[in-house]
Amino acid sequence: MRSCLLSGASCHLFCLWALLVGPVWLQNASHHRRKDHGGGDEGVVDKPKLLLLSFDGFRWDYVNRVPTPNFLALKREGVKVEVVENAYITKTFPDHYSLVTGLNAESHGIVANEMFDPALNRSFSMETDSIYDPLWWEQGVPLWLTNQKAGGRSGAAMWPGSDVKIHGEYPTRYLEYNASMPFEDRVRKLIEWFTAPEEQAVDFGVLYWEEPDESGHNLGPESSLMDVVIVDIDEKLGFLRNELKKARLYERLNLIVTSDHGMTQLFPDKIIELDQYVSRDWYTWVDKSPVVALLPKEGRLEEVYSSLLEANPHLNVYKKEDIPEYFHYRHNDRIMPILLEAEEGWTIVQNRSGTFMLGNHGYNNSLPNMHPVFLARGPAFRQNYVKHSMRSVDLYPLMCHILALRPLPNNGSLANVQDLLVVGPSQAPFAGPTGSPSSSSGPPGGVTPGYSYAPTVGSLLGVVMVLGFLMVFVKQVTLKQLPTLPMQSREMSQPLLQEDLHL
Ligand SMILES: [Zn+2]
């Protein structure tokens, strides 16, 4: 290998090359940086955009039972995760808050749809206005607020908690909860917010839809009538895709489609009646089946516990301190002293006078039927890539990364899911749309918005070249006519490697 540094002629050539090329390289790096957050119209500075959509109760395998061309398109255009382990307990409010905080329920404090807080001496129910009391929500900080604190703007269409003034602040734009507002209107509102003038546009949005949860409860997930419901959800996803295309957002926006939990079939003969085993006078019933929270009356803890412990082989009975650590469901005052967990398919009631549902969720989060769907596409994501598994709490650090936000302490891990991204934090620069078998339809210009390390490396190379020139220049001035010295530095001889590359 020849040495450049100490050969007079080569040295002059290198000086000339560095002088000419270095500034151009720096200029190119700067150009890359300007486009770095783009991916949209040429020359337009554009922040990363992210929309998180939850179809409540959309079980992971619903996409396999009827044709769902829009879900299929998302898979082809982006990523799909086959197994998503959601947070325990697998109910709507806890799991939706886990998605936007990255926290397990014991850490974010929304431990159930129905709760009692002994310190506050208040009750929470998703059926009442108690949900608008911010105190329930303030053990966690939802991503829409973190985005706003960092200078972003958030838009929320009826995500649980998003019309509550948490930590003194609402989302920048939001809709008050109104179950009768059509999905299509919610979509139009979000697109209006995303496409507002630069100084008003949101860059992070959350969108919630009540189905197929409601139908799953009423019909049972295994009913053939659910097929129509799933087709309807796919068409709603199709509507969203079309509206995003019409608004010229489709290629610029990162879209994540997921859910809070799945759904399992219930059976009328699989009923556990507590009245058969324990007196109602001994406890307060706090949360409903299939994971029931009981608050024993003063001095009745042991009696309630021992009465139920061997009551039914399809019922797990835990004192709070004995709840398995892997549930991450123990360390919060809102978790009651006794927890009853039904086996999948079983229902816990006090007696049979209540209404009976054909489908339910809330069961152990290791059960496949409790798992939600997960697909994502957009400039941040790889294409046609299927990942085996993740945890729903991993989504929070992933979304923070996409939005270039510093995540708050959370139970998730970006490392667990970074392979979903075009270029992960530790991957090589200049990689472009990596690892994808069909990456040719990547974002315009082949630039990966917000994720390319090319600008940094370009800048560094430019600096190295200019420094190299200066070193050589100084050397030439101070060490004239010296004979050639042995030079071992591979770094400084690298320009010559270019010759080798032509071989
Ligand atoms: Zn739900």
From TrEMBL:
The protein's required cofactor(s) are namely: Zn(2+)
Kindly give the Pfam families that the UniProt entry links to this protein. Phosphodiest
Signal sequence: where?
1-26
A GO term from the CC aspect: membrane
Chief location category: membrane
Tell me if Signal is a UniProt keyword of this record. yes
Q: Which CDD domains match?
A: Enpp
Any GO MF annotation of the entry: hydrolase activity
Q: Does the keyword Cell membrane apply?
A: no
Where located? Answer: Membrane
Record membrane topology: Single-pass membrane protein
Tell me where the transmembrane regions lie: 453-474
Keywords for this entry? Glycoprotein, Hydrolase, Membrane, Metal-binding, Signal, Transmembrane, Transmembrane helix, Zinc
Annotated family: Belongs to the nucleotide pyrophosphatase/phosphodiesterase family.
Name of the protein: AP3A hydrolase
UniProt source species: Gadus morhua
